[in-house]
Amino acid sequence: MKPVTTPPKTYRVKSFGCQMNVYDGERMAELLAEKGITEAPEGEDADLVVLNTCHIREKAAEKIYSDIGRLTKGKTQKKAPMIAVAGCVAQAEGEEIMKRAPAVSMVVGPQAYHRLPDMLDRAVEGKRSTDTDMPAIAKFDILPQRKKRFPTAFLTVQEGCDKFCTYCVVPYTRGAEISRPFADLLTEANRLIERGAKEITLLGQNVNAWSGEDLKGHTIGLDGLIRELAKLPEIKRIRYTTSHPNDFTKGLVASHGEVEKLMPYLHLPVQSGSDRVLKAMNRNHTAESYLRVLEDVRKARPDIAFSGDFIVGFPGETEAEFEETLALVDEVRYAQAYSFKYSPRPGTPAATMDDQIPKKVMDERLQRLQERLNRDQHAFNQASVGKTCEVLIERKGKFDGQWLGKSPWLQSVWFEGDADIGDLVTVDLVDGGPNSLRGQMREIATA
Ligand code: SAH
Ligand code: SF4
Ligand code: F3S
């Protein structure tokens, strides 16, 4: 099918990746809204579909072709949507997508999507275009203000990665590490406040590699940025993700103990508990140095909850090495975690290493790892029962008068009461399941 050229009235952005990918998806939606295009109501077909892709694992590219097929299959030229492919697969395989999928009008990379409106103008004229440039940070200068009101918000502060873990595509799809200037972040934080944000999550592929100059010209790191943002009275909660063990400064550790608004939750990926595997992964840290970071943070903030990422079945991983990962999990007792089967990514060094692990072995290891991680998550939730904490309401629950929000430890908490979205509510935690907790509302802490 030829690409659609009718000017779209409605759009839908589908994001498949990490929080930065979701952030990019929100920003693309705002660009389209600026052009007078409205978001398609839930359940209705959109005139323009943006597939905001992720390249991190599995056959992401194959999935895109089947999505495109589904969007166009059996539809006439009039009924089919205009299609844009964005995100990290667009960056990695843009040319290929253009060749293989004639129904696609636009391919735009994660550093170039501020140009989407121009590409759209061209698409309406029947001209297909690809833009996978990586101009340093330019997109942030051009993006429109955000309008949607919401109590929690993402703020991308750092992009790209220079770490080159041997399994990972991010350094190729997102480019080199870049920090956004402090003044720009302050401006954006104030805009987020205007649209109702009470909690800000600072985002970056290596968010703790952020550095900049404060308004007085002093060099600051992520901890300095957190301290400055904590001065904004409307901001009640600050989080950050994802950090890397090697960029964890003393100042950042200290800020966990000193900045009350910094929530007691730390997502710090480790990937493996085996030093041999960590070396082959080019992680440049050991299991012990990782554990030391956690220990330091826990000293600064005793109620901290930890989360991590794991890869099982990295090339050459032996049963004994995998068991070292299990031992690390037993030691840390994560409150939450993400675990994945190793997926060979084109162009990465690990993809051509000897000793790729059979799928069956990976399946079995993943299951064993997840059993423990689920056990610990459930135990953490149960250990929270009896505590009183603040919950920031993010949405309505299933039933009338029921609310859903997050505890300081990023657990989902639901409860009933006279409150509203955006309220910070004092809640007694009364029941802890595997994935969420039930609370009893005491009072609204702040309106
Ligand atoms: N920059 C972050 C997140 C990177 S991507 C960090 O370094 O922590 C998120 C997670 O995906 C990684 O932490 C890793 O656990 C997983 N991942 C990345 N590449 C992978 C691959 N090729 N196969 C399986 N999991 C992978
Ligand atoms: Fe990928 Fe490693 Fe960079 Fe994380 S630190 S984005 S896993 S290369
Ligand atoms: Fe995926 Fe790109 Fe994020 S590959 S994980 S969307 S940086």
Summarize the structure.
The protein is α/β, with parallel strands linked by helices and 447 residues long. The chain has 13 helices and 21 strands. The mean pLDDT is 94.
Pick out its properties.
447 residues; alpha/beta; Rossmann fold; pyruvate-formate lyase- activating enzyme; OB fold (Dihydrolipoamide Acetyltransferase, E2P); 3 domains; six-stranded parallel sheet; five-stranded mixed β-barrel; 13 helices; 34% helix; binds S-adenosyl-L-homocysteine; binds iron/sulfur cluster; binds FE3-S4 cluster; transferase; iron-sulfur; 4Fe-4S; iron
Structural class: alpha/beta
Q: Could you state the CATH homologous superfamily of the largest domain?
A: tm_1862 like domain
Top CATH class of the largest domain: Alpha Beta
Give the ligands present.
S-adenosyl-L-homocysteine, iron/sulfur cluster, FE3-S4 cluster
Commentary on this structure:
By secondary structure, this protein is α/β, with parallel strands linked by helices. The protein has helices at 19-34, 60-72, 87-100, 116-124, 138-142, 170-173, 182-194, 222-230, 250-258, 275-280, 287-300, 319-332, 359-384, and strands spanning 10-15, 38-39, 48-53, 82-86, 104-108, 129-131, 152-156, 158-159, 178-179, 199-203, 211-213, 219-221, 237-241, 265-267, 305-312, 336-341, 388-396, 402-406, 412-416, 424-432, 436-446. The strands form 6 sheets. The protein has a 6-stranded parallel sheet, sandwiched between helices. It starts with 9 loop residues before the first strand and ends with a strand. The model has no long low-confidence stretch (mean pLDDT 94). The site of FE3-S4 cluster (F3S) has 13 residues, from helix 1, helix 3 and helix 6.
